[in-house]
Specification:
The chain is α/β, with parallel strands linked by helices. The chain has a single domain, classed as Spore Coat Polysaccharide Biosynthesis Protein SpsA, Chain A (Alpha-Beta Complex). It has 10 helices and 11 strands. It is globular and about 60 Å long.
Amino acid sequence: MKILGIIPARYDSSRFPGKPLVQIGNRSMIQRVYDQARKASLLNDVIVATDDKQIVEHLQLSGCQVEWTDSLHQSGTDRIAEVAARHPEYDIVVNIQGDEPFIKPTQIDAVILPFLKYSEIEITTLMKKITDENALLNPNIVKVVFDSHHKALYFSRQPLPFLRGIPVEKWLKHYTYFQHIGLYGFRNTTLQAITQLPQSGLEKAESLEQLRWLEHQYTIQLSITEEANFGIDTPEDLEKAKRLFNL
């Protein structure tokens, strides 16, 4: 089984233009993501997928593998699917977010492991226990509920489930909630199929593309991680990261 990690990278961003090329210490953000991904023991190779000339030139100078993609893609999933389609020799594709410069190689391995154990697995991702009320109520932190086999039932920006008759500030004492960590593994054939699906009603309502896959009856297998992530969405996040990691 051959496994490919793909990092989608887009230069234009409404909240943080040029984000992949910002410097964090002595390396750019996209370089840090690439370097962390290369440390994952179960990946055979890593490629950055982008439509931007500056990112391509920067990565080529750094010796990273990078491939051009169409500029009209609506999501990172669509972008990695284009690259993965050129590489049918890879059975599994991992979508590694380009704004996670401190991603743990062990988390990448964690989304791959279910494919090595079970032949029926189509899509994998991670979840982490929520211990903070602010995280529970933050709509930018996606929550997930799952069945007894850790297969996803639903993803939402709202806390799920709703605890009837219990004040919100006490919910964490009465139920174990999980947040979704946006790192995905796909069978290459599944990745090609889901990117051809039309947008669904739930996806539009929550602005979460994984709901499209669930609505079309694709199974998403969840694994628990204890490791925290630190994504960078804004310039303020960047400054916080520099302070936190002394960079």
